[in-house]
Amino acid sequence: MPLTQRQIFRRRRIVVFSAVGVALATAFYLPMTLLAPLSAVSASVITASVPELPQPELELPSYGASAIAAIDRTGLLAQSGSAEPLPIASITKIITALVVLDAKPLAVDEAGPTITFGETDLDYYYTQQAQNGLVWPVSDGQELSQREVMNVVLLASANNYAQSLAHWAYGTDEAFVAAAAAWLSDHGLENTTLTEASGIQESNRSTVEDLTKIARLAIDDPVVAAIVAAPSAEVPGLGTVENRNQLLGIDGVDGIKTGTLDDWACLLFSTDVTIAGEVKTFVGVVLGGPDHPTVAAAIRTLIADATAGYTEVELVSAGEEFAEYDTPWGDEARAIAADAVSRVVWGTDEISVTVDADPVRLANQGTDAGVVHVRIGTETIDVPLQFSDEIDDPGLWWRLTNPQSLF
Question: What is the dihedral of CA 296, 262, 175, 151, to 10 degrees?
Answer without folding.
Answer: -50
